[in-house]
């Protein structure tokens, strides 16, 4: 495998130089976790995390004395963040778990690198790399990475009882790094302990689920989760995995909420409420599954009428879901429709309440009623009438109303 520091030297020399500044201050610090894993595969990384046996308050003092900005981002867990040229480097003191409840851990500092590595989730995430480029691998992570094996560190059941989120993380990592059948010990442990997911915060569950939905091997991963009884705890409202498979076969984008809209078989409002989706996510989910759906061959006036009342993205997402239901495969007609929706300027109704009152209508509920009447006419005309034409129509409506009143 590629040396982690060789990967940095080749693709991210500025990061290697910045790390050199940290190593000059804390020479026994090591790269840890995902950075080591991905650098071994020759991949660039976004986040660089380090660990060291030095207590966090001493780490902060050493960095500050060297003129490096440091932020106490997680002192309770031994983490500080060094900021060099606007790039953050998390540095965490080696830890051991004193007590865990399946969601949170009480930790104590240690100087034992193996003890710190033993508390991590998977062997491929438990490696560290020192300033000389030597990879320290206590649990066979390099061999597992090369073979495409995702294994828990030590006893799978113990790792899961420490933090049940590791069940979902296993499936996410299996999809990205695994090859072949998942580890049998892991499958047995996750099947037995699937109910522990119910103890997790829904925010953490959604964070992992959205990554699974936008990662590789989505359908296969969900099928594996379903077979273990895990998916029923993640989405108890019900799932439609085949529908999501058809959506993916159509070539739909990797939008997590769109994919969730295809996957959910139950009430999307209940899903949004239970998972505590953001207001934007919950609204997008509901709009994707409800409302008019344009079809290929839609005329220009009809498209403008739709765009006047519905955001282009909502309409486009509905077309993906309809195409998944109707065809389940790529189609040039649906693609052309989406391009037209994306590139058509949404029409804007040219009148407002001020125009209505300016034409002589008294304030009150009648203003909205008149405005709505003119807008319906504007829509029927294909959203083509301009401000002057709409004002003329407005005056005609007011005249008709006055005539009826007399």
Short characterization:
The protein is of the alpha+beta class and 406 residues long. It has 22 helices and 9 strands. The protein folds into 4 domains: 1-147, Beta Polymerase, domain 2; 154-234, cca-adding enzyme, domain 2, CATH 1.10.3090; 238-347, no CATH class; 353-405, no CATH class.
Written overview of the protein:
With 406 residues, this protein is of the alpha+beta class. The chain contains 22 helices and nine strands. The strands form two sheets. The protein has a seven-stranded mixed β-sheet. Strands 6-7 form a two-stranded antiparallel ribbon. Keywords: Magnesium, Metal-binding, Nucleotide-binding, Nucleotidyltransferase, RNA-binding, Transferase, tRNA processing.
Q: How many strands, which pairing sense, and closed or not: the largest β-sheet?
A: 7 strands, mixed
Q: Helical content, roughly?
A: 40-55%
Mean pLDDT: 95
CATH superfamily of the largest domain: Beta Polymerase, domain 2
What is the CA-CA span between the terminal residues? 90 Å
Computed Rg: 29 Å
Layout: helices, strands, pairs:
Layout: H1 4-11, H2 13-25, E1 30-32, H3 34-40, E2 48-52, H4 56-65, E3 69-74, E4 79-84, E5 87-93, E6 95-100, E7 105-109, H5 113-118, E8 128-129, E9 135-136, H6 141-147, H7 156-162, H8 165-177, H9 184-192, H10 202-213, H11 218-227, H12 231-234, H13 241-250, H14 256-263, H15 268-274, H16 279-288, H17 300-309, H18 312-326, H19 332-343, H20 353-358, H21 365-380, H22 387-405
Parallel strand pairs: 2-5
Antiparallel strand pairs: 1-2, 1-8, 3-4, 4-5, 6-7, 8-9
GO biological process, one term: tRNA processing
Cofactor: Mg(2+)
InterPro entries: Bact_CCA-adding_enz_type3_sf, NT_sf, PolA_pol_head_dom, PolyA_RNA-bd
